[in-house]
Amino acid sequence: MTPNTIMALRARLRDITVLWAAGAILAGIALPLFLITGNVRVITNSSWLYEYDFNRYNIERRTGLPREELRRASDDIVDYFNNDEEFLATLVNFGNGDTPLYKQREILHMKDVKDLMLLVNNVERGAIVLLLFFLITGAWTRGWQFTGLLRRMMIASGIGTLIVVAAVGIATAISFDAVFTQFHVISFANDLWLLDPVNSYLLRIFPEGFFLDATLMIAGMTVIEFAVLFGVVWGFARRADNRTPTGETV
Q: Where are the beta strands (DSSP E) in 168-215?
């Protein structure tokens, strides 16, 4: 491509209003998806969250397992989400040698959970690719004027995200059990998640309150990250406004 051809292409892309409107909509959807899925990945791989669970819900008493064995079990789950093993095989020592911790139904359910986590990771990758393409193309074709469109995209995306977070928050406050159940109904194609709370070590180690706490952490992290990103974009947009007082249109 010659320099003149590249300049003509930039001008052509810059002036396709419908294309930029569609791109802004897609980016506005991709941004919260990227933040949420990224935070899910961070949380599920954080050893401090499991320590918090062990302390808050007195898991040692609930299971009869010492702290070292609980850490061994949580480390196995973290490793399982990041390796190529099909099934989770956790051994713990109750005092008389290593023995399998989970029953077959729990192991099969964890396979479904791992598949869901792989989907979450793929959504995160897809969202960041879309966002980077939007940002790089916008900066290349529109320069400082792109920050105006970026700011409007962030506002719309932020409003949409807050509405969804507020709706989920209200539903959770009314009945987290109902929300949690519906999540499983939507996310899994079978009923393997219906486990016996008395005999299932998976439920005894990770009670419903643990998932509520994790959900609140993910929501809080997402809101904070969104606010920081919006502040950065707003600052660049203000700087762009000073460079181009007349502004620009999509």
A: none
